[in-house]
DNA sequence: TGCGTTAACATTATCGTTCATGTAATTTAT
DNA sequence: ATAAATTACATGAACGATAATGTTAACGCA
């Protein structure tokens, strides 16, 4: 509808000044007379000048943009993180790109290429952990980045912010054991993921400390789909597997488990105690209160943003960021 | 760590060709020998060429970027939409910006300015509906855009994709009435929002059709926060308000309601029948199966993307998009 | 043979900024 | 009074890609 967009040059012509002067005036830089600056700003407003961020970014090399690469924003866990990241970033005048990988390695590669291609200033990524090449490419490329929620323990040169998964796994398991559950089922996530590995370590430590044996057949890996958990829990019940406490990799798996148990007529926490992880309770309410391990997503997200901002603003800094945010137990109705 | 990013020029030097040829080869344009194209593509991969979208965009005037402006990605309803939008957009090589408004009018304005400043090719927005100026500004500015999930009924010149809220409200209410519930509580969302208005219309129509009076005191507006719903439902129960069927504006409100009812010892659906809206059941599992109205978020999202793509690719087209996606009832355990 | 055509590439201009300098006029310091 | 410094602006060159033309060699055809 409108005509061409107003450019710096247009303003310059009208003001009888050079484009550079206009630019400096609008950006509040040095070497400008107060009156001139005032005049230019008014003129800009009058002519409806908006500025072309692309051109500026091309020249300055900065886009004021951060890419957030996660497996799935529709997953409440990531949804909350993305929200917090966006909030933090906006405070610093940054906008975020969001790209889903569905934890697929090729999609992750594509996501990284896209982000770099769009010249984002930094990347916050929850890696699929199906390999290290993608992240190594990031490293080689030189874009500031930080891993969130998952880490490559064997490669600490990849900066990360995670929660204390080991402690979380330990606390949850210990709580169940302390409540009298000698056999605790662990419905774990994909073991390739560091958080699954570390929560398992915590699970083992709790057993060790209590002098209890770990029954390997009570450690089960469940897939991402909802049906998967339901199927597995059903099978376990029908096989009459022995356990009374259940520690789930996340709250969604915990809820599904509780659902199946209910279907079989079992009560929670009387027959089975269930504890989850993520503590997304407060956001997505459900009709019974799940005990969970709280990993402060807000804090993680904020730190992730702070870290990449630091890297953007101090490119020469060699500082390493290996941050582990504390986790703690939140006991509710599903355990007693 | 690494030096500069690899540019077209770098590739050109290595290949002994011109930058333009490289560009054409990579973009699969004409006037390139098959062997050359092959060679260039391999070289590009080998050298880790990513391309600089900024430069290309500056020249072509297109950024291959769509801004998605919603109130809150952490809300599963929007999370799912954002996911679907991203998926659809990616298929067409578009990347999405995501900006949250928290349904605040000034944040919405800021979001729009940000999007335009970043030269997005189009905007998909779920408007806060606290005013029309923001959207009018979009219109005046000429950026292709489409409203999603909410519309300004009095201003059909603003293109939109919504679900059939009126029908959804009608179906849900009718089902409850048909099941014998003469007094149906409607826990509605903020009435400034078109979807709340239209679901209410459906609620009224169902009553009318059944020859039942609408009890205005059974139409209650609940706020966005979780505590709000709980408080209101508690009050209603303690006031001994008369109703047996409950239609909730969305599934989250429905779950919360069910939770409170359970606390008071009521059973669902024996004592109260509860029906929600959104049908996010399949994604976020909960331990009882909620009846709901299904609005296909996937379809809405896909259409929204298609519409803005059409507008991008046919700037001269005057076509109007006022699309209403069908809703349907999904009956589960919370109603009988 | 000669001229037009085509395939396959090269050149140049340009997008709208900002960076790195350059410069004239004025002020300050000695 | 004169060199030095400062103020307030101008100039030209990028940034890295692509659009619009140019160019060259090989080929076809009468």
Explain what you see.
- In chain A, α1 packs across α2.
- Chain A folds into 3 domains: 44 residues, 434 Repressor (Amino-terminal Domain) (Orthogonal Bundle); 132 residues, 3-Layer(aba) Sandwich (Rossmann fold), CATH 3.40.50; 137 residues, 3-Layer(aba) Sandwich (Rossmann fold).
- Chain A is built from 12 helices and 12 strands.
- In chain A, the strands form 3 sheets. Chain A has a 6-stranded parallel β-sheet.
- The first copy, chain A, is α/β, with parallel strands linked by helices and 336 residues long.
- At the A-B interface, α4, α5, β2, α6 and α7 of A face α4, α5, β2, α6 and α11 of B.
- The structure holds a DNA duplex (30 and 30 nucleotides).
Essential attributes:
homodimer; 336 residues; alpha/beta; 434 Repressor (Amino-terminal Domain); Rossmann fold; 3 domains; 6-stranded parallel beta sheet; 4-stranded parallel beta sheet; 45% helix; 15% strand; elongated; DNA-binding
